[in-house]
Design a protein that fits this description.
Layout: H1 12-25, H2 38-45, H3 49-61, E1 65-68, E2 72-75, H4 84-103, H5 108-123
Antiparallel strand pairs: 1-2
Helix pairs in contact: 1-3, 2-3
Length: 129
């Protein structure tokens, strides 16, 4: 399904969460699609099942997945609205980065091309990735 970087400074449970978020946002995993059980994924990635369980709990708390007792975990069909504070913080970071790029001499057309390319890369993902 995906790989975990065991040498990364980022905790493994966060890496698992990030990978699932990417798959959900890119719509590689569709709404109501079953995701691997804790045991299956732990075996597949050769990591502790408690780590996977922690990731799944946090993904459920954030609204990315939901669990059905006795059936497993599924991709949520309604991802909760993004935290307004986090959204504003990210917008500010983008604005700061854009300001720096403009200061360094990047042209407007190049900025627009960069944004469009990034958008296409994220939204244009396929199930074959």
């Amino acid at each position: 399904m995906f790989q975990i970087d065991l040498t990364s400074r980022k905790p493994i449970y966060e890496q698992v969460m990030d990978k699932f978020k990417q798959l959900i946002i890119k719509e590689i995993l569709s709404a109501d699609e079953k995701i691997p059980s804790v045991r299956e994924l732990a075996t597949q990635l050769t990591i502790n099942p408690n780590t996977i369980q922690k990731s799944y709990r946090e993904l459920e708390r954030q609204g990315y997945i939901y669990s059905v007792r006795g059936r497993g975990n599924f991709v949520s069909n309604k991802i909760k609205k993004v935290d307004e504070e986090k959204l504003n913080k990210l917008k500010q970071q983008v604005q700061n980065s854009l300001s720096e790029l403009i200061y360094l001499g990047i042209e407007k057309e190049e900025l627009i091309e960069l944004i469009e390319k990034t958008y296409a890369m994220i939204k244009g993902g396929s199930r074959d990735d």
